[in-house]
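Researcher: I'd like a structural prediction for the single chain below. Treat it as a standalone chain; there are no partners to consider.
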Amino acid sequence: MIYASDLDQTLIYSRRSMGVSDDASGIVPAEWIRGELSAFMSDEALNRLKALPEDIIFMPVTTRTVEQYRRIQIFQQDVIPAYAVTSNGGNVLIEGEVDQSWNDYVRSQLQQHSAEAVEVRQMFSDVLNSDWVAGERLCDELFFAFVIHRDRMPIEQVTEKIQALESLGWEASIQGRKLYLVPSGVNKRAAVEYVRHQIGNVPVIASGDSLLDRSLLDFADYAIAPRHGELYREKQRNPKLVPYRFTEKSGIFAADEILEYVRSTHQVAIGDAVS
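Model: Treating it as a single chain, here is the predicted structure.
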């Protein structure tokens, strides 16, 4: 069985997103940036992750770049996954190294089915300005990440631009203080499916909080999302369109429930296999 999970606001949390103070009990450091502690994880969730049965392959699946993923110390020291998906599916890491075959395949697909990044950036150029955009990056030469002041974002204008992305083979996601513009061919589902083909046709459990996680959750045999983030907000607007199970808690301790769901689902799946 594979447990494929988004990281930020699903398993690990920044000060802004975790919902408790950073001196609260029951949380542990997860990431440092230039010597400053920047992300945390529930201690209980970490212990449950460490205690997963040996026949569950834990696979981080993140929009972070390879570099950003590698600075999460928990996944370099405490729990070291054999497989990881970064760059929203643009890269697959096997034993910590980039699988060049997958990377080459993704880039060839983008050349065939998606507009070039420079065209997408040009389309947004008249709405992107310093009033609400604090920074931007072309991540791994694959997709854009903009740091934004969300309360200042011109919602109607940005929404119009996002709606036009589909015709270019791109999509968008707003997560906290980030606006992502991503080619549709760079997605978490395809990367996890690629790894599963190498492992074998085993069941997949998935967790995630954002619209960029939808393809992964839809692909999985079992799915759960935390009670916060884009998917939860979308569920409030359109309950029938968001069929996933959600945790009872929000914030950093939602991860405890997610890991308990993984454990209990594994037990049920094993029982069904035996019977």
